[in-house]
Amino acid sequence: MTNMKRSPLERAAATIALVVVATLTASTHVTAQGGAGIVEWPYVGADQANTRSSPADGVTPANVDQLQVAWTWRPEERAREEFGTVPGSFTSTPIMIDDTVYVSTNYNRVAALDAGSGAVRWVFDPRAYEDGMPALGGGFRHRGVTTWRDGDALRIFLASRFRLFSLDAESGEVVDSFGEAGVVDLSRDLVWPIDRSHFEFNAAPVVFKDLVIVGSAVGDRVIYRRTPPGDVRAYDARTGALVWSFHTIPQEGEFGSQTWENEAWRYTGATNVWAGMTVDEANELVFLPVGNPTNSYYGGQRLGDNLFAESLVALDANTGERAWHFQIVHHGVWDYDLPTQPMLMSIRVDGQAIDAVAQLTKQGLTFVFDRVSGEPVWPIEERAVPQSDVPGEVTSPTQPFPTRPPAVTTTTGMTLDDAFDLTPELREKARDAMGQFRIGPLYTPPSLEGSLVRPGGGGAVNWGGGAYDADTGYLYVKTSNVAAVMTLAKFDPASTSNPFADTNEPDYVGYDTARGGRPTFEGSLPLNKPPYAFLVALDLNTGDLAWRVPFGRGSERLRTHPGLEGVDLPDRLGTPGAPGAIVTNGGLVFAGGGEDALYAFDKRSGREVWSGALTERSTATPMTYQTSAGRQFVLIATGSGRNQELVAFAMPE
User: Fold this and answer.
1) d(Cα 91, Cα 108) in Å, to the nearest integer?
2) Which residues share a beta bridge with 223?
3) Which pLDDT value is given to residue 2?
4) Are 147 and 155 contacting, i.e. CB atoms less than 8 angstroms apart?
C-alpha cells in the first residue's frame, strides 16, 4: 500500500475541522449523557480519546468515605479439563450505555448487566476455550468490547482469539448479516498464512464511522520465521468486508522496509498492536501503539531500526494510509513494546493551544506530539545508550528521550545506589547480590551473564495506561518500580523451556525474570529499594511533575520477612501491577493497581482520601458511571481463576 503524509493545506483544514467538531462533540456528549441524570462510560477508555475521565461528580473527596459495595457479579468461569484451559486474571474494563453494563470475561464471554443492580440480562459465549490455551503469557484474559450504532440498533464488537463477532446489544445474539453468520475470520487477509493458535486478541476494537478497526496479539514466546504478522485492518461494520490493511512490518517497496536489513521483513512477525488503538474523529486519524517484533530480546536476525516496531503511527482512518509516525525504540530488545492506548487532549503550552496525543511507555517516558502534524510538543533528544556484546546482535547507538515531561519513575536503569535499603545490613547484601549482573542506565541490553534492568518487560507503565483531566491539565499514571534480569541463552530445541520457539538458525532466546517474579535476595526481598509503585500526576500544560505519591500497602511477604523484624516500615511500600487509574469531575482519582483494595485520591494534591477493601486482588482498570436514577457507581474487576468478581461501589441509596 502507499504511505502518504498530509500537505500543510490539508493539515490546516483538519485543524479548523477539529475546532468545529470538538465543540459539537463536547455539547452532544453532555446532552447524550445528561438527560435524566445518566452519565455513561461508552468506551473502555471512557471516550474515543481514551482519557479515562468522567463528568460524573456525585462522589467527591468530602463524601467518598460513604462508598460501599452495592452489588457484585461473578463470571463463574473454571478450568475446563476437556480443553486444557484455565481462566487467567479478570482484566476487563466494562462499558455502560443506556443503563446497561457490558463486560467481557477471561474466556471472552460477554455479559450484559443491569447498571443499577448487576442483574444479568444476557450472556454470549464465543466458546473460545474450545481452541485450547492461548500462546500469550498470562493465559486466558480479555480487556473489553466496543459498540457501534447502525441506525437505532446498537451493535457490540467482540474480538476473540482469531474471530471478530458482531452482537445485537439488546439480545446478545450474533448479527447474521456481518461476515459469515455474524463472524469474521481474522486469521485471513494477512501478508502470509499463519498458525491461528498463535494469534489472538485481548483489547477492544475501535470504530470510526462505519469501520471497525482491529490489531492483534502475538505471544512474546512465539519465536520462528513468519510468526503471525501485526497487520492492522479495517472492516465494514455492517458486512464484515475488508476495507483496508496497514502493514506494521513494511513489505517490499513500502516506506520503512529499508530499516529491516537483509530483507528481514520477509520473515519477521509480530510487530502487532495489542494494547488497543485511539480514534481522532475530528481529524479522521487512528493512532497505533505498535509492539515489538519477533524475538523480543534478540534481534540478530532482524538488524536495523525495524520500522514500525515500537512506534506511534498515525493513519488516515478512512484509507489506512500513513499520516506520520515516530519510533520510540530503535531495534528493540527489551520487550518495551508500546503497552497502552495513546491519549488525546487539548493543552496550552507557552500560550499556544495544541491538540495533542500522548503516548505512555514501559520505560516510564511520556512522548507528547501535535496529533495532526506529528511534531513533538517538547524537544526529543537522541542520546547514546549502552551497546550489546552478544554475538550477531547490533543494537542502536542512540534512543529517543523526551526533554519534557519528566519520567514517571523516580529513576530508571540500575546502580548500586538503588539497592534495597530498609536496613544497612540488607543494603550491603543487596549490593553484593547485584554484583553478579551487568547493571547500567536505561537501555542496558540483555546479556549472556544477565543484565539487571529497570523497568523490566512488565514496564513502569503497562496496559492500564493513564487518565487525563481537562480541568487540571494533569495526566495521572499508576506506575510500577520493578527490576528484572534479562538473560540471553543460545537456542537449543532440546533444552528450551519455551514450547512456542522453533528455529534452525544460530539464535538466542531471552528470559525476563520479572515474568516469573522479581529478582530477589535473602529469599524474597527485591533487589531494589521501595516504594514499588507510585501514583503520579504530570502537568501537560507545563511539562512538569505535579506530584508523586507511593501507591499501595505492598507485599505482606516483604512485611513479614525475618530480616525486617522490628523495623518500622513505611505504611505504603507500594504495590506494582499493570492496572491503571481513572479521574472524575468530582475531584477524585480511582485506582486498584493490583492491590486488594480500591483507592481514591484527591486529584489536585495526590492525598489518599479513601480505600475500599476487595475480597480479591484488583486486576483491572476501574470505570464509573451514573445511572438514569442519578446514582454514581465505580466498578472494578478482581481476581483470577475461579475466584473472579466484578465489584460495584456506590453511595448508600
Assistant:
1) 11
2) 501
3) 35
4) yes
Residue 502 has pLDDT above 60, yes or no: yes
Cell numbers at 126, concatenated: 464465543
Secondary structure letter of residue 94 according to DSSP = P
pLDDT score for 438: 96
- CA dist 246 → 2, 273, 416 (Å): 9, 11, 45
Sign of the dihedral through C-alpha 486, 492, 498, 502: positive
Is the torsion defined by CA of 436, 438, 442, 447 positive or negative?
Answer: negative
Cα 565 versus chain centre, distance: 38
Helices (H), 406-544: 424-434
Q: Residue 184 belongs to what H/E stretch?
A: strand 183-185
Three cell numbers written together for 228: 503471525
The three-state secondary structure class of 16 is: helix
Pairing relationship of beta strands 95-97 and 623-626 according to DSSP bridges: unpaired
Domains, in order of start, for the chain: 8-650 (2.140.10.10)
Q: Which pLDDT score, from 0 to 100, does residue 139 have?
A: 80
Q: Looking at residue 515, what is its pLDDT?
A: 52
Asked if residues 484 and 519 have their Cβ atoms less than 8 Å apart, the reply is yes
Cell of 236: 465494514
* Pairing, β 438-439 against β 451-453: parallel
Put simply, whether the predicted model's pTM sits higher than 0.85 gets the answer yes
Q: Contact 46/92 with Cβ under 8 angstroms?
A: no
The pLDDT score that the predictor gives to residue 514 is 55
pLDDT of residue 26: 34
Answer whether residue 25 shows pLDDT above 90: no
From CA 111, how far away is CA 644, in angstroms rounded?
A: 14
Residues in the chain: 653
Average pLDDT value for the chain: 92
Please enumerate in sequence order all residues whose Cβ is within 8 A of that of 34, keeping only pairs 6 or more positions apart, or say none: none
Under 8 Å between Cβ of 216 and 229 = no
Q: Is a pLDDT exceeding 80 seen at residue 518?
A: no
Q: Number of helices (H) and strands (E) in the chain: give both, helices first.
A: 3, 40
* CB proximity list for 143: less than 8 A, separation 6 or greater: 44, 91, 92, 93, 104, 202, 203, 204, 276, 463, 620
* Strands, E assignment, 76-182: 95-97, 100-104, 110-114, 120-124, 146-150, 153-160, 163-168
507 band by pLDDT with thresholds 50, 70 and 90: confident
* 640 CB-contact burial (10 Å; exposed 0-12 / middle 13-18 / buried 19+): buried
Q: How do residues 108-154 score in pLDDT, each as one tens digit?
A: 999 999 999 999 999 999 999 999 999 887 789 999 999 999 999 99
Measured CA to CA, the distance from residue 548 to residue 538 in angstroms comes to 9
Distances, alpha carbon 247 to alpha carbons 228, 250, 261, 399, in Å = 12, 5, 17, 24
- State the Rg of the chain over Cα: 23
Residue 208 and residue 288: Cα distance in Å, rounded?
14
- The burial of 278, by beta-carbon neighbours within 10 Å (0-12 exposed, 13-18 middle, 19 or more buried), is given as buried
Evaluate if residue 366 carries a pLDDT over 60: yes
Q: Report the alpha-carbon distance of residue 534 to residue 408 in Å, rounded.
A: 9
Strand ranges inside 10-99, DSSP E: 53-54, 68-73, 95-97
Q: Write out 441-478 in H/E/C secondary structure.
A: CCCCCCECCCEEECCCCCCCCCCCCEEEECCCCEEEEE
The C-alpha cell that represents 314 in the structure block: 498515525
Name the pLDDT band for 22 (thresholds 50, 70, 90): very low
CA–CA gap between residue 383 and residue 329 (Å, rounded) = 12
